[in-house]
Amino acid sequence: MPARSRRHGKARREATAEVALIVGGGPGISASCARLFADEGIRVAVAARTPDKSALLKLEQDHDVRRYGCDASDPDAVASLFEAVASDLGDPNFVVHNIDGRMADIFRKGIHQADRELVRQVLHNSAYSAFLVGQEASRRMLTAAKPEDGGHRGTILFTNASGALKGFARSGAFAMACHAKAGLAQSMARELGPKGIHVAHVPIDAAIGWTQDDGSRWHRMAGTTVDDNMADPDRIADLYLQLHRQHRSTWAFEVVLRPWVETW
Questions:
Q1: pLDDT tens digits along 8-55
Q2: pLDDT digits (tens, 9 = 90+) for 176-208
Q3: pLDDT category, 1, cuts 50, 70, 90?
Q4: Where are the extended beta strands (E) located within the chain?
Q5: Looking at the predicted structure, is the pLDDT value of residue 219 above 70?
Q6: On the CB side of 252, how many CA atoms lie within 13 Å of its CA?
Q7: 231 with 29: CB under 8 angstroms?
């Protein structure tokens, strides 16, 4: 696809009141979403436990993205985040929860080997943080004045993994967290859809290869991409924006993404 024009993005930015909040910031999906949304004229905020990451600093410099520090598993921190974003940019009407809670020390551990405290942390960082973000996002969307253009109050998207669809052996903690997040999303979609809030769940069944400084796409465990064998975060961002802009007569709830060569 051709490079997006920043001049076009700035022109669009002046004509929109849309505000996007991406919770969970890094160089992959979150950075791709932030760039695309900003270039489409949406005011963008990204929250991360470590907001001074180089990828987020670059987003601020190149795309006017606001950075915020937040532990999304802390109720007070999440409430303060939404309050700060509302004060700086306006209440977000497009919220992406992009945290899966995974950590290296819990992977590939049998049920008798898994550390109980790490299991609790995975659930807390993933499903519980998704609940906190979804709760605060929907509360603000519901209290905002109902728009006249179709009654769409806002969009809440939950990024998830293939663990939402199948529990792999030696992956009990992660499977629990992914299933919990999927159940939360489904419940919220049924409750909030009739009230004008589009809730969507996006399990990604793939390694995500994000673009490096040399132009290659790479994943820390799967290596360098070959022939589109990994998910491209720029294309994931395209889908997220499409979901946000769907007409309410055809709102999608669950979209499973995987590369064309993925075995499933």
A1: 344 444 445 899 999 998 899 999 999 999 999 999 999 999 999 999
A2: 999 999 999 999 999 999 999 999 999 999 888
A3: very low
A4: 19-23, 43-48, 66-69, 94-97, 154-161, 197-204, 210-211, 217-219, 223-224
A5: no
A6: 15
A7: no
Measure the CA angle with vertex 258, ends 257 and 259; round to 5°.
135
Write phi, then psi, for 237 (nearest 5 degrees).
Answer: -60, -40
Separation of alpha carbons 47 and 38, rounded Å: 15
Q: Distance between CA 33 and CA 122 in Å, rounded? A: 24
Distances (CA, A) of 115 to 127, 129, 143, 179, 249: 18, 20, 41, 19, 46
Q: How far apart are the first and last CA of the chain?
A: 28
The dihedral of CA 120, 122, 127, 130: what is its sign?
positive
In the DSSP assignment, the letter for residue 215 is: S
Residues 64 and 18: their CA atoms lie apart, in Å, by 14
Tokens 């924006």, located at residue: 241
Instruction: Residue 129: name the closest of 262, 31, 23 by CA.
Output: 23
CB 158 within 8 A of CB 184: yes
